[in-house]
Automatic annotation (TrEMBL):
The keyword Chaperone does not apply. PROSITE patterns: MRAY_1, MRAY_2. Catalyzes the initial step of the lipid cycle reactions in the biosynthesis of the cell wall peptidoglycan: transfers peptidoglycan precursor phospho-MurNAc-pentapeptide from UDP-MurNAc-pentapeptide onto the lipid carrier undecaprenyl phosphate, yielding undecaprenyl-pyrophosphoryl-MurNAc-pentapeptide, known as lipid I. It comes from Pseudomonas mangrovi. It is found in: Cell membrane; Membrane. InterPro entries: Glycosyl_transferase_4 (IPR000715), PNAcMuramoyl-5peptid_Trfase (IPR003524), PNAcMuramoyl-5peptid_Trfase_CS (IPR018480). Its EC number is 2.7.8.13. One of its GO terms (molecular function) is phospho-N-acetylmuramoyl-pentapeptide-transferase activity. This is Phospho-N-acetylmuramoyl-pentapeptide-transferase. Mg(2+) binds at residues 192, 267. The keyword Transmembrane helix applies. It catalyses: UDP-N-acetyl-alpha-D-muramoyl-L-alanyl-gamma-D-glutamyl-meso-2,6-diaminopimeloyl-D-alanyl-D-alanine + di-trans,octa-cis-undecaprenyl phosphate = di-trans,octa-cis-undecaprenyl diphospho-N-acetyl-alpha-D-muramoyl-L-alanyl-D-glutamyl-meso-2,6-diaminopimeloyl-D-alanyl-D-alanine + UMP. It is a multi-pass membrane protein. Its main location: membrane.
Length: 360
């Protein structure tokens, strides 16, 4: 929106041409989303408290969590608001990638909102039934996959790229739709499972989102893409603005979500952010790198799968409680220790993911 205004004003002063630079608009995207989060955060928390939109806590979980009962939830709406406004202000709105990522994010946020609403407002402990949640996730996931497949302008946009192997690429054809569906829906649910402790999910999301922004910038530049031997995806560089908005909005939310949390993001935030990361990774052809950088999300998801499978097959549990962050809590780790150590793991994994840019 403001990019169009800057382009118009260039005829009066050439200085407005500076807004053409992706790096500047990325920085402005971070600052705008961060400012919005910090500004709107206190008002949103008060509103949630007045309306008694508080978190329900499992009685079979760690006893330390009982004190969290009633803490305002659905704060993910704050994150999505900041991301949407920042993106609409600073991104090139003629770019199809900006719209598909924004649409997926808000669509999955809507699913999470309905789930949270039914749990918190209607006091329905089941929330949105799982079959309907996965149905709508599948609808939006497949919709995004089909759109990206149909609008692909060159073969590399539907080719599987393997990091470390510069001469290996696998044309997917219609398999691209299947892969994209699993990446978007899988990453959405993985972030949702991770969102169980104060700040545990949002900081890895910020780190992975920031790293994906670097991939977007490089993939959208023909010279950098050629030098680094990564796919050149015209137009993907514009997604650095969206990734920057994730970073800014996430850090602003962390201001209120850090231990002890004043607000939780709820499914409205977790499902949306996970889907956003998955969609961006698909666009820049870095699904495998997302799997690496989002290792904490993967670990949380696998712990649930292993726990359920083990109990159904043998009647025994592998972990004291799943997802795995609760396992460490029940072993006696204080909540802040679990959170910070998972953050440290994410930093390491993100650095490994970024290192694949040169290790080819």
């Amino acid at each position: 929106m403001l990019l169009l205004l800057a382009e118009y004003l260039q005829q009066f002063h050439k200085g407005f041409a500076v807004f053409q630079y992706l790096t500047l608009r990325g920085i402005l995207g971070v600052l705008t989303a961060l400012s919005l989060s910090l500004w709107l955060g206190p008002w949103m928390i008060r509103t949630l408290q007045i309306r008694q939109i508080g978190q329900a806590v499992r009685n079979d979980g760690p006893q330390s969590h009982l004190s969290k009962k009633g803490t305002p939830t659905m704060g993910g709406a704050l994150i999505l608001t900041a991301i949407a406004i920042s993106t609409l202000l600073w991104a090139d709105l003629s770019n199809r990638y900006v719209w598909v990522v924004l649409a997926v994010t808000l669509a999955f946020g809507a699913i999470g909102w309905v789930d949270d609403y039914r749990k918190v407002i209607e006091k329905n402990s089941r929330g949105l039934p799982s079959r309907w949640k996965y149905f709508w996730q599948s609808v939006f996931g497949i919709g995004a996959a089909v759109f990206l497949y149909m609008t692909a302008e060159n073969p590399v946009e539907t080719t599987l790229i393997l990091p470390l192997l510069k001469d290996v690429s696998i044309p997917l054809g219609l398999g691209f739709i299947v892969l994209t569906y699993f990446v978007i829906v899988g990453s959405s649910n993985a972030v949702n499972l991770t969102d169980g402790l104060d700040g545990l999910a949002i900081m890895p999301t910020v780190l992975v989102g920031g790293a994906l922004g670097i991939f977007c910038y490089l993939s959208g530049n023909a010279n950098f893409a050629s030098y680094l031997l990564i796919p050149f995806v015209p137009g993907s560089g514009e997604l650095i603005v969206f990734c920057a908005a994730i970073v800014g909005a996430g850090l602003g939310f962390l201001w209120f979500n850090t231990y002890p949390a004043q607000v939780f993001m709820g499914d409205v935030g977790a499902l949306a952010l996970g889907a956003a990361l998955g969609t961006i990774a698909v666009i820049v052809r870095q699904e495998v790198v997302l799997f690496i950088m989002g290792g904490v999300f993967v670990m949380e998801t696998l712990s649930v799968i292993i726990q359920v499978a083990s109990f159904k097959l043998t009647g025994k549990r592998v972990f004291r409680m799943a997802p795995i962050h609760h396992h460490f809590e029940l072993k006696g780790w204080p909540e802040p220790r679990v959170i910070v150590r998972f953050w440290i793991i994410t930093v390491i994994l993100v650095l490994i993911g970024l290192a694949t840019l040169k290790l080819r």
